[in-house]
Amino acid sequence: MDNLIIAGKTYSSRLLVGTGKYKDFSETRAAIEASGAEIITVAIRRTNIGQHADEPNLLDSVPPSKYSLLPNTAGCYTVDDAVRTLRLARELLDGHTLVKLEVLGDPRTLYPNIVETIKAAEILVKEGFDVMVYTSDDPIAARQLEEIGCVAIMPLASLIGSGMGILNPWNLQIIIDNASVPVLVDAGVGTASDAAIALELGCDGVLMNTAIAAAHNPVLMASAMRKAVEAGREAYLAGRMAKKMYTASPSSPVEGVIASARSQ
Length: 264
What we know:
One of its GO terms (biological process) is thiamine diphosphate biosynthetic process. By secondary structure, the protein is an alpha/beta fold.
């Protein structure tokens, strides 16, 4: 398959996964390995990656030498909190600049606050961060975030953790058609078919956490998601047949078919 390129770096997997909600770091590691993901997102405000020396460190199970870490601002509701969190991540990870920005607007739905997101993105881009940004499926907001300099646009498919799948493929299609940076579905994926649909639409990738971690068998679901992303991308590249209504087109040719006795 073709590769995903973000901020000048090449990845063979188009599946990005999170590290939260697993029963322990051992299950986290097993699921990530089964997913084949190379970019792993980490909630800096909720996960220890060295800021708490007396607690288990995620990096012992998911080493930066093997994965590209994507620190995120999950749980941040203001520009200041988001910017401060990613500055901390850069210090903890020795100057790491690839980050995922999300500024939430509502604690119940976790819907993004686009005004605050744009403000935070402007600051972070000016400070040299490579910003992958979680946003709504508003094509205008997506365009503004790209113009600011974000390296990837990550519209939601549906609400974070909802598992509702892609509720508005038309808006996603507008964003995909007009973007010159990678577009990755972020939030709302519930099962493998949702991931496949996102890639079939032309999304460059998909990021998920709950869909895997909350499955009855997270490791098996991670494997399913890996296959779904690969299949969806291949289907997109192959180009699906045109949809037709009431237009018969036999799979097998009829020329040369021996006539039945009744038709002779």
